[in-house]
């Protein structure tokens, strides 16, 4: 019986995101998947801007950004007074200025390949390699409840079964047809039948794990093994949708735009232009009915789906020579009431929430689940974080799942509905309403507007008389520093070499907490002395109390100045200063406390931690203080969690240092005596 | 005896750039190098902005851009009235707005690694792989003059000798010292002694080549084999300079800026901050004299060089723990009078020009030599280009070498000179003069201001009453479309999907010519009809006359919309339209000739060729017409060569089509009858 810190079941985007965290943090991890095959076409394809920011924090965002098709414009097509479709309006697909990225599409298989590359690149002699073990499925899972409170125990016992390649290949995939029906919710899970079929005939292995995470999809075996209270709750509608990935040959003018096309009588199509000249079409199948709960799956063919699309797009012509993939699904919205059992077994991704794919949310919310869980699990395994922090996973992510289901119900309904003929047509869907819903939901669907609840990780602090959460969220203010929300990215200029940096590039996903000191106008001696007093306190009182974290060598993908210090004095707390004085007025070695340019006997001073909110020579002015909503005179102090969310916002003044102290005390274990 | 189209001698940056072209174009090529070892530290490190543009056209610019240290600011330190150094001024290191890149530094070994990766990635089943063959040197080279005019012949016969690893390792490298003296001009060539030592004892091979290119450095064996008229011409000064790559520990405030520090009495240092906390120091060695022509090489040690730097930087402290590399050199400026023999053997890089390294020119001019030569050689080998075009290599690049030597003489002299005490001190160098020279030379050193002479490839055309070359070059106008100069990059918005693109990203180095139609305001029906008439002529008359070019699959690194057409109808001429109407006013399939959205039976229309000079949703307005200096009403037609230089600029009007015709007739062979 072998031991492992973390056992991940399922190697889709959620499982691989988690494995990447573990690789970066150097945690002993196994990841198994019952399927033999990687995904080569189809499946999920949407990347929301927050997801791209997260991928970028691991250094793989730019690979996606380069290969993906960027969705810049959405157009809305509706019937005119004669019932013929016409373009009713155009809008940006992503609200300008909420992120440096825009919504993009690329097929899931490439994303998985990028994860595998990044996991491999994170391997170092100090860290055990992590490789996906395919054709392996769990067949039993037991939690030793007497051991769950023992930090050093391995309380989860799992039996793993080694399948042959045949057994691990989904039967519907044995044909040559590139369809995704076998992963669709129209098809029952084959897990039970595989288990039954292979009973007694396969090699098995017992594994003891400190933590197990089920990233094993909508039919999650891990979820089922946890008992009936983990069942998904929710409903299905009767609507059946088909999906085609084709290279279209069409005179429809907006085929390279994201479009919502509502026909008068033939239903709705959503057009998603993809990479490599592909276009994905989501088409409502009016011909297939599920009323009564049962229908004939063989009714659904790519021809049927395609003909529906042709009807909707009339009078424009539509044909194709090349089809890449197709599937169909029934709209169902469900989520689990529990995301964790005893904070030892966790569920993530489709295993705890399913919904319709048209808003491009699935892969994103799934990866963001394990992005939220990963650093917590990893730092607990390394003895750095207090295990109580693990309970924030369910707290933070269950709400997102609920919000997602609520959004999807509203969105799908409007999407599937018949367009209203006029203002008196109450059973039809008003197209203005759809366009507005599309815009209003964008802060949620892009995930930049997500805000985590108050907890040990997100202290609500009064600052200037109001908390961040009292602000009304709007595209104009969504990037402000608010507790519970992501630390947005603005450009600031390095004090010592004049290079402008995206602030998020100074915060790679390496497991470290960041204390960002917005120093304000430090050309004012009084303000400078406050900032230096804080630096003195941080370096003499705060940092010495907390542990160091040995980092994987690939963990700082964006810092051209490789941070040697993280190898030598890898404090779990990184200190950055962003000031608002003129760059020429500050000589850092002379003016600033050494906390802001730590000295190393072999490497000299670190010039990579002080930034100016000012004009750069070639890339303009980042206007970071304005964007973050920070007062230029007084500044502020912000604690950023390892996942880039803001844990605390407070003032530079000595009176507020205790809040910083208290925050870290609740989260990070004190350094072990040496 | 084996046959090869192109034999490259020397696998430094010049040789590898050439090999990359050959790999992309699918030309049978061998590249040999006498050294066993790659470069792991030191050597050249400067990347000028034009070089970055070129590397980006092969899809490897972003790797350099990410790893390199960007030089943003230069500061000038001079003695004050008491003889103590003080910062006299700061300036941007790269003039703003001349390119999307800025000068950057990264060591040569990484560049070579990126080339090797890109060459490997260009391999396809259709193309023979190209691999560097190390420990191989030529020992004889003969040109069969009777065969040089036969396009199908292999007139160059070369003997290659296979060395053992010991023989291929430079003797001074057998110590553990990471120094570059063995490559310095202070050390004599070891080529002759290796040849003599290994006579008779090594395996040899005879190769017949259509073309041979000597990229084998300052001691070029290929150059020597061509005879005495190929000898380098020029002078050496007496000044000896030392170079150190260290991680400095210093309180000198500008150690992360590029600096020129002139001390009152102790000489000059240039500071070049590098990647990974390294800093390169160029230091004038006053203690070592070469007067009389001879000096003792053992005098030069890293300690001596370092102590000189310490003196110059006083009163600031300077020490180090880690030294990466060091070398020394004597300033010598020489170039060859001939860059080619019979257009069958060519010389490039250090083999035909050497100079001082302080302006960061060497690696750049060398790579730009073979970037200029590569497409010509490759397309001639493929039977696409007229062989006469090969003579433009010497025409275009010899002038650059001469200009470089002239610049370097002036720059080095000012740099080595004693700073003037006051305005009456005529033997001293005025510091204002130095700063001005630094700025004025930037259009040359950045290479964006380079202009190739009139030839079959660069037709001087009268447009609006004056030729491009009559303009005075300035940073404000250097990016205008001018015959002989590079096609600069501005952003324009894709008509069909609203995505903004750098125009250079639509022009990857894939061997194709581009006809860029600046259509002007095509919402004016008269202008639209001119543009469509041109499209009709291009697709019916121009394109059918010229051949197709099968491209390597990796040849379009930046086009998210993979251009399937290049596989199916890979015309050697690519047509792009950039118009100045409002994007919403144009429906491309309805309004524009099919030349601008070619139709393919299997893939439908190509949406990747029409661009708008307009506002994008997220990245502002590119103001391309303004930047290119094109009239928004009338537009213009520009022919861009495969290396991104402008071959012709003319009007959209029918009257000027004959100029386009004539240009291609002089350069490209007509399509072979099918």
Q: Which oligomerization state do the chains in this entry correspond to?
A: homodimer
Structural class of chain A: alpha+beta
Calculate Rg of chain A over CA atoms.
26 Å
By CATH, the superfamily of the largest domain in chain A comes out as FAD/NAD(P)-binding domain
What do the pLDDT scores of chain A average to? Answer: 89
Uncertain runs of chain A are 173-177, 462-470, 554-567
Helical run tally of chain A: 17
For the biggest sheet of chain A, the summary is:
8 strands, mixed
CATH class of the largest domain in chain A: Alpha Beta
**DSSP strand (E) fraction of chain A?**
15-25%
- What's the architecture of the largest domain in chain A, going by CATH? 3-Layer(bba) Sandwich
Q: How many separate structural domains of chain A?
A: 2
Largest interface: A-B, 53 and 53 residues
What CATH calls the topology of the largest domain in chain A is FAD/NAD(P)-binding domain
Helicity range of chain A:
25-40%
* Strand tally of chain A: 28
Structural overview:
The structure is a homodimer of 674-residue chains. By secondary structure, the first copy, chain A, is α+β, with helices and mostly antiparallel strands. The first copy, chain A, has two domains: 2-67 and 105-234 and 334-416, FAD/NAD(P)-binding domain (3-Layer(bba) Sandwich); 451-667, Phenol hydroxylase, C-terminal dimerisation domain (Glutaredoxin, 3-Layer(aba) Sandwich). The first copy, chain A, is 26% helix and 24% strand. Chain A has 17 helices and 28 strands. In chain A, the strands form five sheets. In chain A, strands 1, 2, 8, 9, 10, 11, 17 and 18 form an eight-stranded mixed sheet that branches. In chain A, strand 13 and strand 14 form a beta hairpin. The radius of gyration of chain A is 26 Å and the shape is globular. Chain A starts with a strand and ends in a 7-residue tail after the last helix. Residues 173-177, 462-470 and 554-567 of chain A have low confidence and may be disordered.
